[in-house]
Structure formats: structure tokens, C-alpha cells
Write a structure and sequence with these properties.
CATH architecture of one domain in chain B: Orthogonal Bundle
Helix content of chain B: over 70%
CATH superfamily of one domain in chain B: ABC transporter involved in vitamin B12 uptake, BtuC
Distance between the termini of chain B: 22 Å
Number of strands of chain B: 2
Strand order of the largest sheet of chain B: 1-2
Distance between the termini of chain A: 52 Å
Largest sheet of chain B: 2 strands, antiparallel
Radius of gyration of chain B: 21 Å
Number of strands of chain A: 12
Order of helices and strands of chain A: EEEHEEHEHHHEHEHEEHEE
Radius of gyration of chain A: 19 Å
Number of helices of chain A: 8
Helix content of chain A: 25-40%
Largest sheet of chain A: 6 strands, mixed
CATH topology of one domain in chain B: ABC transporter involved in vitamin B12 uptake, BtuC
Oligomer: heterodimer
Order of helices and strands of chain B: HEEHHHHHHHHHHHHH
Shape of chain B: globular
Number of helices of chain B: 14
Strand content of chain B: under 5%
Strand order of the largest sheet of chain A: 6-7-8-3-9-10
């Protein structure tokens, strides 16, 4: 599976939100998009999901131009989890059912239900099935939304800050699940993360965006502190211990 | 709990509530058929199954069409209400949010005042001409809103504001006509706006049933798209919904249901707002059950309201539109309060 973005530009009025983005990805890539606030991270995800207006021959998946696909065809290729979402008054089960509608429409098949069953066991959601989404904790709700995204059986998973409201335990749990799924199902995942430590630990590649331009696109092993310094305009040092890379932001105490 | 168990439990809850609504429908139908100018006559129940000619004539020509009209109009308004709340993503939306009632009122006023069409001498023409003008005006209103909406990518907030704007435009046009006409004409237009089910005939019932049947099927077959829209437009798109065209078509069918009902019977408030909320409070917002049951609740509510309209000050009969708001508003408040307590 090969995913490419070629010469992606996006302007709102005279403001250039994305400038000449080019990149490729293939099966099993877990790519973290990092960068300062307003760098265009969410905008890039929304382009890949084709929610924002795209043009012909910009974004392709295995030679298929995403521009040519209908919403229903797209939903089978791409699952997108937005940063903020409105929460309707429906149950966890109904949320998971909704993810299979793109395949089955008004009546779900036996197979759909067995998929819902196995994913809710995998994500430990079985106790929550009857609960309304609004009554769940942040961690539970996020797990439900990720499970729903995976039920779409996407080739590309787009996650916009999926762990930003979670406590450390839930952060690790959710990220581990995502990493496991990306590797076992051989899909491509673009994940926007603000915590660079998590990005380094869980992603295989880092895409660094600054002011709408792609600054660096590197494998985690090739990451250098200079790159992060340039990206965030802060002093950064990287430390290795037990095969793990740790990030340290230099700062002064007065 | 496994998925299957949760599924079965939900199905049981839905079935129980459906049965309750069906029972309520039958109960109020029965009450409507045995009640008349002399109040409720339980003993008349047996006459329903006998061949008492005089009683049969009263039931078949007056009570039955009226009761069926209440059921069908209530269902159309309930259906329209759930569609409007869904596509506009606003729980305060109702069939009349987009100005349809004011537009229908203008159409009727236009027919009565400009064409002087309240004349009893033209019985058959009059029976159809006023509703026809009301229908044309209300569909014109919804087409205008769709036209405006397409210019702003069908944004719900703009659609609602456009509805408010067009509603007041049509309302002022009606007042303009009323100001310059005779007292009799002005009174006729005013009386038209009181929702009144006594105008029911079998021809009208036929049109209502056809509209309801096809709208219900078309709207229900998109039930999951309403659920997806609950997560916001971007997320709905990613779940496979072509958001703009879906909103446009549902707006059209939702408006059609209301326009048909209002054109024949005048403005009946609150049913379209309350009926979906009753179902939402009991079963939640999953539209697979919500759409048909909102319609059914609307039918039950209007049947019940019409029964009270006939019995409250009998032998005088109140227009049902007055009763729906009178009962509907406290009922909504009661449901909201008890729901908060249960949580």
C-alpha cells in the first residue's frame, strides 16, 4: 500500500495554511505529525480525510485519487478522529454500529455484530455497551471512538490529538492499542501529538510542520535535537537510556 | 455483557415502548369514536360493531375521518420534527423553525383575501384552493431556504436564521393583506391559522397517508446518517455521509410533511417539537428507532389532544391547535424535570 501527497497547498484568503507539502507513506507506518500551535497539523489531517476541499491528483492511495471517491468509498479507506467532537446522546453499542453502516447501511449483518463483539472485548468495552457516550469518562470515550474508527476497517487512520485529555495510564493504554493495531493490520496511521516524548516512543516517523511548511520528515532513529530546536524555538536535548530516547527542554530558573 | 445481550436488551426496550404507543393509539382512537356532542359514551362501544345506521353515519363521516386526520397529521409533524432536529443539530428545532407555518399562513391569506376564496358557493374549489395556495407558499419558503443554504454550504445556523427571517417576512406580508381587507376576510385568515381537524375528508386523508408512507420510508432509510450527523459535519462525512446533499434532501422531505399537514389543517404547534423529545428521553437519540417512534408519538399526542379539544368545553369544540400548545408545553417541562432527577 502506498500513500502519497504531492504539492499540497492550501490558502484561506491570503493566508497560506499549507505550503507545498510532499510526502509518502506505506503499510505499517505510524507517523506522528508534530509542530507548534497553528502549524497546520489538523489542517493536514483534514486534507487527507478530504474534509477540506482538495484538488485532483494531490492525494493518492495505491494510485487511486482520493478526490474521485464518494464519501462512502472514502469512509472505507480512511477513518478520522477529530480533536473535538460533538457527542450525540447515543449508546456505545450504537456508536460502534454506526461505524459499520458504511458497509451494511440500514441493517447490519451477523458478521458486523461479531466484529463489534470482538473489538469491544479487545478494548474492554463490554461493560460500557449500554452506556450513553456522554456518561463515559474521557479515557473510556476515547477508546470507544478509536474502536469505532477501526471498525471502519480503514487503510489510513487519522488521529488528531487522541490522548490530550487523558491521564498518564490511559494515554499509554490508548497509544499502545493504536500502535498494536497499526502493526498487526498493516495500516497507515497519522497521529497528531503534542507530547514529543510519546511521539518519539510510539511513532516510527516524525513529520514536523512549522507555519504550514514541512520542515523535516525523519525516522525516529534519525531524530536530532537541532531539528526539534528549529521546530519549536526552544532549546532541546535528547538523552538515551535503555534504548529509549528522552527529550529534555532546557529552561532557566530566575 | 456481550454485544448480543446489549442488542437484545435494547430491542426489548424498543418493542415495549412501541407496544405502549400502539396501545395508546388504539385507546384514543376508541375514545374518539365513542365521543361526540353528548360526551363520552362507553356504551357506544358495542354500536361500533353493530349495524346501527345512524351511528355508523356519524362515525364514518365525522368521527373517524377526524380521528384519522389527528393520527396522520400528528405523525407527519412528529416525523418532520425529528428530521429538523436531526439535520439542524438543534434540539429546539421544530417543523416550524424554517418559517413554514408563516408561509402557509400567507398562502392561505392570499387565497382568501386576494382571490376572495372563502365563498361557500364554490364548495369544492374552496376546499382545495386555500390548501393549495398554502402548500405552494410553504414549499416556496423551504425551497428559498434550500437555495440560500446552498450558498452557505447548508450551515445549520444560517438555515435556522434564514427560517426566522423568511418566517417574519411571510408573517408581515400576511398582516399587510389583513390590514387592507374586510373584517370578514381578516377573521377568515385568522381562523384558518387555528389548527382545526374538522376539515378532514377521506380524499385529504388519502393524500396525507401517501405523503406519510413515502416520507417515512425515505427518511428512515437514512436513519444512520442522522446519527452520524450527531458527531458534527466533519465526522459525519468521514462516516460516509454526503453531508450537504443529505441535509438538502431531508430538509425537503421534512418540509413536505409539514407543508401538507399545515395546508389542510392550519397550524398545530408543539407536536413536532415534543414528540421526538419524548422518544429521545426514553430511548436516546439513535434514529433507527427514533424516526418511526417520533412519528407514532406525534400521532398519539395529537389524537389525545384532539380528544381533549372536543371534550374540554363540550358541546363546544376547541381548535386542537390551542390544546396542543396548552398541554404540550407543561408536558415537555415535566419530562425535562423528571429526566434530570433520574440521572
Amino acid at each position: 500500500m502506498k500513500f502519497t501527497i504531492k504539492n499540497l497547498n492550501f490558502k484561506v484568503g491570503t493566508k497560506e495554511l499549507l505550503k507545498n507539502i510532499n510526502m509518502t507513506a506505506s503499510s505499517g507506518d505510524m507517523i506522528s505529525i508534530i509542530g507548534p500551535n497553528g502549524a497546520g497539523k489538523s489542517t493536514l489531517l483534514k486534507h487527507i480525510a478530504t474534509i477540506l476541499p482538495t484538488h485532483k491528483e494531490i492525494i493518492t492511495l495505491d494510485g487511486i485519487d482520493l478526490f474521485d471517491l464518494t464519501p462512502r468509498e472514502l469512509a472505507k479507506e480512511i477513518a478520522y478522529l477529530s480533536q473535538f467532537s460533538e457527542i450525540p446522546n447515543i449508546s456505545v453499542l450504537e456508536t460502534l454500529e454506526l461505524a459499520r453502516r458504511v458497509y451494511s447501511g440500514i441493517k447490519l449483518s451477523q458478521q458486523d455484530y461479531s466484529m463489534i463483539d470482538s473489538i469491544s472485548q479487545e478494548f474492554e468495552l463490554t461493560k460500557l455497551l449500554e452506556r450513553k457516550l456522554a456518561t463515559l469518562s474521557g479515557g473510556e470515550a476515547q477508546k470507544v471512538m478509536i474502536a469505532a474508527a477501526l471498525l471502519q476497517e480503514p487503510q489510513i487512520l487519522l488521529l488528531d490529538e487522541p490522548i490530550s485529555h487523558l491521564d498518564p495510564k490511559n494515554q499509554l493504554e490508548v497509544l499502545s492499542i493504536i500502535k498494536k493495531v497499526v502493526e498487526s493490520k498493516k495500516i497507515i496511521c497519522f497521529i497528531v501529538l503534542h507530547d514529543i516524548q510519546h511521539a518519539i516512543h510510539y511513532a516510527s516517523r516524525l513529520v514536523m510542520l512549522k507555519q504550514g511548511s514541512l520542515l523535516y520528515d525523519v525516522y525516529v532513529a534519525d531524530l536530532h535535537s537541532n531539528m526539534l530546536e528549529e521546530l519549536f524555538d526552544v532549546e532541546v536535548s535528547l538523552h538515551k537510556s535503555n534504548n529509549h530516547t528522552f527529550i529534555y527542554y532546557a529552561h532557566k530558573h530566575n | 455483557m456481550s454485544v448480543y445481550k446489549a442488542y437484545k436488551k435494547r430491542a426489548l426496550k424498543q418493542k415495549t415502548f412501541t407496544l405502549f404507543l400502539l396501545f395508546a393509539t388504539l385507546f384514543f382512537l376508541w375514545l374518539s369514536l365513542i365521543s361526540g356532542y353528548n360526551g363520552v359514551n362507553i356504551s357506544d362501544t358495542f354500536k361500533l360493531f353493530n349495524t346501527d345506521e345512524q351511528f355508523f353515519t356519524i362515525v364514518s363521516s365525522i368521527r373517524l375521518p377526524r380521528a384519522l386526520a389527528a393520527l396522520l397529521v400528528g405523525m407527519l409533524l412528529g416525523l418532520s420534527g425529528v428530521v429538523m432536529q436531526g439535520i439542524l443539530r438543534n434540539s429546539l428545532a421544530s417543523p416550524f423553525t424554517l418559517g413554514i407555518s408563516q408561509a402557509a399562513g400567507f398562502g392561505a391569506a392570499f387565497a382568501i383575501i386576494v382571490f376572495e376564496n372563502h365563498n361557500a358557493g364554490l364548495e369544492t374549489l374552496s376546499l382545495w384552493f386555500v390548501p393549495f395556495c398554502a402548500f405552494i407558499a410553504s414549499m416556496l419558503c423551504s425551497l428559498l431556504i434550500i437555495f440560500l443554504g446552498k450558498k452557505v454550504k447548508m450551515s445549520p445556523m444560517v438555515l435556522i436564521l434564514a427560517g426566522v427571517g423568511l418566517g417574519s417576512l411571510f408573517h408581515s406580508a400576511t398582516m399587510f393583506l389583513q390590514y387592507f381587507t374586510t373584517e370578514i376576510n381578516a377573521a377568515a385568515t385568522l381562523f384558518w391559522t387555528f389548527g382545526d381537524l374538522s376539515k378532514a375528508t377521506y380524499n385529504i386523508l388519502f393524500i396525507l397517508s401517501i405523503t406519510l408512507f413515502f416520507s417515512l420510508i425515505i427518511i428512515w432509510s437514512s436513519h444512520w446518517k442522522f446519527d452520524a450527523l450527531g458527531f458534527g459535519d466533519d465526522n459525519a462525512y468521514n462516516k460516509g455521509v454526503n453531508v450537504n446533499s443529505f441535509r438538502l434532501w431531508m430538509l425537503l422531505f421534512g418540509s413536505l410533511c409539514t407543508a401538507i399537514a399545515v395546508s389542510f389543517f392550519g397550524i398545530i404547534g408543539f407536536i413536532g417539537l415534543v414528540a421526538p423529545h419524548i422518544v429521545k428521553l426514553i430511548l436516546g437519540n439513535s434514529h433507527g428507532a427514533l424516526i418511526p417512534l417520533s412519528a407514532l408519538s406525534g400521532g398519539v399526542l395529537l389524537l389525545g389532544a384532539d380528544f381533549f379539544a372536543r371534550m374540554l368545553l363540550y358541546p363546544s369544540i376547541l381548535p386542537v391547535g390551542i390544546i396542543t400548545s396548552f398541554i404540550g408545553a407543561p408536558m415537555l417541562l415535566y419530562l425535562l424535570i423528571t429526566h434530570k432527577k433520574r440521572q
